[in-house]
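Q: what does this look like with NDP bound?
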Amino acid sequence: MSSHIEQSGVTVLGLGPMGRALAGAFLDAGLRTTVWNRTPGRDRELVERGAVGARSVQEAVASSALTVVCVVNYDAADAILRRDAVTDALKGRTVVNLTADTPDRARDAERWAAEHGIPYLDGAIMTPTTTIGTPAAVFIHSGPKELYEEHRPVLDALGGTHTHLGEGISRAAAYDIALLDIFWTAMAGYVHALAVARAEGITARELAPFAMGIGAILPPIFEQSAEEVDNGSFSGEGNPMTSAASSMAHIIHASEAHGIDAGVMRAAEGMARRAIGLGHGGDGFTRIAEVLGR
Ligand code: NDP
């Protein structure tokens, strides 16, 4: 670690599970780390490990050239940052907001930061707390490239891979939303599948190896369909939309026969039926991405 980084130190605002993991990784990397959280006491273990527990947000941000914010959402981040005393203390210091929220909120935060002379980067964390400080962590960032490069040595202390997605401030939030869309709809399918399987006398443990097999089918589909979607070809060769809709109808019937809500699958089937109605029955399932955007 260069002496420049050690001297400048870093501040972490928000000590939920993720904020604590971030602060812990900074400490492990030997950085002078200042922490603050709305509810007092959450800093105890970090302070025992050498962090400085600030008494106020303004004291926390004044301690470092770089402040990392990681709270539940931008309402919380705004409640912490958008106060005169804090804004004054932040002037000329950099904020990296690793809180998850929408692209609109990222743009709004950038406007606020610019109005107050606060260099601002937005970002998101794509992996769980246990990965922080390890090679498995994944961070995405957006905002001024030069600012990102300046603070990259400190961010690198968090381990994992860091990708700068562009100067547009909302880029990281937009990727985050798209990736979480995949994650939560997949998880909704998974828990629904567990309920239907259970009603048929199959335990989650019994299903697990086969469920993992289904998970493994997805990465090559993401890879292959990327080009198809971008060039608008949507080939249904080998698996047309009509066949997909029929398979989905079986899932709806089987789950409703057990009195299990099939709302998620009905929504998916509804999208396929709409695309079929528009004349795309022979296309692949990815055609829906284009239909939804019309
Ligand atoms: P939470 O999302 O539950 O955030 C908890 C933090 O938000 C605490 O510091 C809490 O303070 C603070 N907070 C909530 N409301 C307010 C408020 N009104 N004013 C001030 N502070 C507030 O837990 P995480 O730490 O896990 O997540 C933080 C961020 O990281 C989220 O945006 C999340 O989506 C993202 N993330 C989390 C991952 C994970 O595995 N946990 C993975 C990837 C991203 P207090 O203690 O006072 O309540």
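The pocket of NDP is lined by residues 14-19, 37-39, 42, 70-72, 76, 79-80, 99-100, 125, 128-129 (CB under 6 Å). Confidence is low (pLDDT under 50) at residues 1-6.
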